[in-house]
Amino acid sequence: MEWPFAIGMTHELRLKTGPEHSARVFFPDLPEAFATPFLVGLMEGVSAELMAKHLRPGEQSVGIGINLKHLAPTPLGMEVRVVTELIAIEGKKLTFKLEAFDEKEKIGEATHERFIINAEKFAQKIAAKAAS
């Protein structure tokens, strides 16, 4: 079977932010703004979604690293758009470049690595660890 991934592949996700995306979800003394952990989740999600479209049966992907800069605050209620681009392939490890924007400006950038796994073997590892 031909390798389904190629440098330059892109994908985009959008999220309308709301109170459930507030930094205060994590700590009450933080600003009432779009939280960095949710930005991380969007960046991981857009990259995972791009990969999921091309994985073979029995495969999944897991995040193994992210280097994020949250550059600007986003008021709750604004839409956030995240774009991922596949920039490197090393065997089963794929590296993505990401950018995030709200309705006014660029709010974040990151590099993110994901690894292709055998879903059944991974589930067995989790079960063995939980049982020990």
Number of strands: 5
String of helices and strands: EHEEEEH
- Are there runs of 5+ residues with pLDDT below 50, and where? none
The multimeric state of the shown protein is: single chain
Beta-strand portion reads 35-45%
Distance N to C terminus:
38 Å
Percent helix: 10-25%
Q: Outline the biggest β-sheet.
A: 5 strands, antiparallel
Number of helices: 2
Question: What is the strand arrangement across the widest sheet?
Answer: 1-3-4-5-2
Tell me the structural class. Answer: alpha+beta
Overall 3D shape: globular
- Rg computed from alpha carbons, rounded to a whole number of angstroms: 17 Å
Query: Mean pLDDT score, rounded?
Result: 96
Write a compact overview of the structure shown.
With 132 residues, this protein is of the alpha+beta class. 23% of the residues lie in helices and 40% in strands. It contains two helices and five strands, in the order βαββββα.
